[in-house]
Design brief:
Blueprint (H helix, E strand, L loop, with lengths): L1 H12 L66 E5 L3 H4 L6 E15 L2 E14 L6 E2 L7
Parallel strand pairs: 1-3
Antiparallel strand pairs: 2-3, 3-4
Length: 143
Amino acid sequence: MQRQLDWFKKQLFGPKSEKQVFDLPGQDSLFASDDAPVPAQPPKNEKRTVKAYQRGTGKKQRDDDCLNDTGLRFTADVPVEVIEHLPPELTGPEADQYEVIGSKTTFRLAQRASSYVVLKCERPVFRRKGTEKPITTPAPFNV
């Protein structure tokens, strides 16, 4: 037990944990000496002007015709499924109280059985007759 206590004391208070101060004679006069050599003035470098520029981003390696009119980068051979989300306000008994003023379209890419499908979700934007505030159904969650 005493050996363990001595070992712990050595670890806490031993030479590894204590900082040693080296007091060498002559070290204190290094920076206070008046006869120390003064370095000469460094030679002045000639300055040159550099044309200022703005750094841009590199263009992506794409063809110009890779986008279609909806902004997707798929050809016509990828099928598009249209999913219409009708809110309960437009299908309920008070459906005649609302008018559709537009629609919002959300595109999602889905993969089914080793092929891709673009899901086109159309959500109507509508308002209650007599009010100005438009109502939009929330976008569906990711597939």
